[in-house]
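Quick sanity check, protein-tyrosine-phosphatase:
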Amino acid sequence: VPIKVEDFKDYFRKQQTNSNCGFAKEFENLKSVGISQAKSSGLALENKGKNRYNNVLPDSSRVKLSIQGSPFDDYINANYIPGYNSRKEFIAAQGPLASTVNEFWRMIWEKNVSTLVMLTRCNEQGRVKCEEYWPSGTKHFSNITVTSTSEIVLDDWTIRDFTVKNVKTAEKRPLRQFHFTAWPDHGVPGTTELLITFRHLVRDHMDQFSRNSPSVVHCSAGVGRTGTFIAIDRLIFQIERDNEVDVHGIVHDLRMHRPLMVQTE
């Protein structure tokens, strides 16, 4: 149930009592949301190797790529996710594997993506979380050529610009990657300010492009940090435009499109 902004302080205090008991219950309620959705595409033998984690498998709202030869060419571990403004405002994706980098760039091209958000480092605590899928110069990914045009490295994030070119048609498009590097290996960022400032940067860029251009958001599995970022974006709109807050409702909606979105309470 949405809470009016003016009532939120009282609601928050109530939920916080008994060591956040109210929040824990609310989060527990979401445990099974979306998990019974069909997973047949992700489980297909030909597609199994394209998944970073075998428990995060998209299906009903999965992003379908063009068929290049095999009927399984359309598979990528990614889902359309509704934002505040449109039902396909975002694509939530897993961090590309070495073997799926070409598909990732194909998705960027075919879905006309201009904004790319990365919320993990490639390696965290000695574990590979995501392939470094972008070039420092120019690199070919099957029929797509990607050229790095600028990189601005700041303390908490890096902003990279690329030109993405379709080799067959010679058409070129700009792409900006917002890479948030301040997420701690365990747990959540210490304050909300950083993430909200980062969200505003991303949103300013998103708003320069048409609604038909979904923004890709990914971490490692494409559910925890990715779900949190998309939920924050929707919540800020909800507060600004509707004067209400419905964290539970938003996370419920996200999980109906990609199970496990937002991983910890």
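Posting the structure with no commentary besides this: The two ends are 18 Å apart (CA to CA).
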